[in-house]
Write a structure and sequence with these properties.
The chain is α/β, with parallel strands linked by helices. It has helices spanning 14-25, 49-53, 65-68, 120-123, 130-149, 168-187, 212-224, 269-273, 313-331, 367-384, 387-395, 405-410, and strands spanning 6-10, 33-38, 42-44, 62-64, 74-78, 81-85, 90-93, 98-100, 103-106, 110-112, 160-164, 196-200, 228-230, 234-239, 242-246, 251-255, 258-261, 265-267, 291-292, 295-300, 346-349, 355-359, 362-366. The protein binds flavin-adenine dinucleotide.
């Protein structure tokens, strides 16, 4: 009798795409069905979104799923998952469709949270997707343009920017933003020295997950670029024209038309709604084979799984590949090898052509760090896309405004 095992992957990001790609290359029993359901028709490379916000092309962050997944072997379905019904072995989509599975891979990634801070959701810009990065870029252009004709004082003018969150995203956005805003200011006849960027971090240091020496060096680099780094300071309210801050012994208000929120993420809320056991960051607790606790036919991958290095693209790719292998072994009755967390390489850009990279005990800064970062970008592209497409994305240097067809459709 024909095997009709249904493998369903939900989420077309790093982990989901890698899992689908690897599965499509495995010798699975005849009749095995592989489907991937994602709410976007394209894959997004988050690692370069900061450059999109600062005017670079979105071409380097967008790959249509159909160009990177073998559609002869994998059905790609464009739908938004609304519910995971694990007791019924099925998933519901916003289209009204029901997707049944024998094996489920949950790769839905993370989502932004605002910790209930008043006004933040309404007023702050985010960095979690291409459309949000483009929205931010457009807003920056408008804010700077408005200054050219404005009679407002410098304080409320659009040249003040507040980046909230001293993690890797906040640091790279702040570094790129300051140069970009100065360039735009000059273009619009404003004095570039009026550009002011604050980076606000609630902890006592930036880059809390990275080695302390490394973080100190990055802190100094931000200061050298003229960025005001405020640690031990939390945002308590956000308004259209500024933010309220609370530090150890101070409360203050910063006037700014642009607030960028990079500080809050959690695992996709659908896994909590489905009743999986959750741990830190509301990620799913997983067993040694990345199964969700208590569910041998459900795997958790990437940002939704509580693993040592979860929260990084490199980990999500690794998880996707591991799970594809585990599924193939299960279907052919072979033993599974345990999941071994793989260390990650940190490379954080701070301003054009400069990055800090931490590889094991070796730290590199400046141009060399930048090349390490670019190499890492290239490795990720090659892991996701065919060589020609990876190379095209790596070399994409067009100015703002160009969108690939898929991103255009979805804007
Ligand atoms: C701005 C930014 C910069 C980053 N920079 C780096 C970096 O430099 N290096 C690094 O290693 N990591 C970086 N990361 C982290 C990295 O992007 C994540 O760890 C990685 O994306 C996790 O992969 P994933 O597959 O778990 O989730 P994702 O890649 O986020 O994929 C989730 C997928 O699920 C889809 N989806 C979500 N909800 C639904 C739904 N309801 N129905 C259907 N589909 C859905 C999404 O559209 C997406 O395709 C960065 C993240 C951000 C936000």
């Amino acid at each position: 009798m024909k095997n009709e095992h249904k493998i369903l992957i939900i989420g077309g990001g790093f982990a989901g795409v890698k899992c689908a790609q690897k599965l499509s290359k495995q010798h699975l029993p005849e009749g095995t069905q592989i489907r991937i359901v994602s709410n976007r028709e394209h894959f997004e490379y988050h690692g370069a979104l900061y450059r999109v916000a600062a005017g670079n092309t979105p071409l380097e962050v967008c790959f249509p799923l159909r160009e990177i997944i073998d559609t002869q072997k994998v059905d790609i379905i464009h739908d938004t998952v609304t519910k995971i019904e694990k007791k019924k072995n099925q998933v519901k989509g916003a289209s009204g469709s029901t997707y049944r599975y024998d094996t489920l891979v949950i790769a839905l990634g993370a989502q932004t949270i605002y910790f209930g801070i008043p006004g933040l959701r309404e007023n702050a810009h985010g960095m979690k997707s291409i459309d949000r990065a483009i929205g931010l870029k457009n807003h920056i252009i408008e804010a700077i343009e408005s200054c050219a004709h404005s009679k407002e004082g410098k304080e409320t003018c659009g040249t003040n920017f507040v980046v909230v969150g001293g993690g890797a995203t906040g640091v790279e956005v702040a570094g790129e933003l300051v140069e970009y805003a100065k360039k735009l200011s000059t273009m619009h006849g404003n004095d570039p020295s009026n550009v002011h960027v604050d980076l606000v971090e609630a902890q006592n240091r930036i880059l809390g997950l990275m080695p302390e020496e490394f973080a100190k060096k990055m802190h100094r680099r931000l200061q050298d670029l003229g960025i005001n780094v405020m640690t031990d300071t939390a945002i308590t309210e956000s308004e259209a024209q500024g933010v309220l801050l609370k530090g150890k012994n101070m409360e203050s208000k910063i006037a700014a038309k642009t607030v960028i929120w990079t500080a809050g993420v959690r695992a996709n809320a659908l896994i909590e709604e489905a009743g999986f056991t959750l741990g830190r960051g509301r990620k799913a607790v997983v067993c040694k084979h990345l199964h969700a606790q208590g569910h041998k036919n459900i795997f958790m991958a990437g940002d939704v799984a509580q693993t040592t290095y979860s929260g990084m693209a490199q980990t999500a790719l690794y998880d996707g590949a591991y799970i594809a292998d585990a599924i193939s072994r299960t279907l052919s009755g072979r033993a599974l090898s345990p999941y071994k967390p793989r260390g990650v390489l940190y490379a954080v850009p701070v301003g054009p052509g400069w990055a800090g990279a931490s590889v094991g005990s070796l730290n590199m800064y400046g141009r060399i760090g930048w090349w390490v970062r670019r190499l890492l970008d290239l490795i990720v592209f090659i892991k996701i896309a065919p060589l020609d497409k990876a190379w095209r994305a790596f070399g994409a240097k067009h100015e703002a405004g160009e969108l690939c067809d898929h991103c255009k459709k979805e804007e």
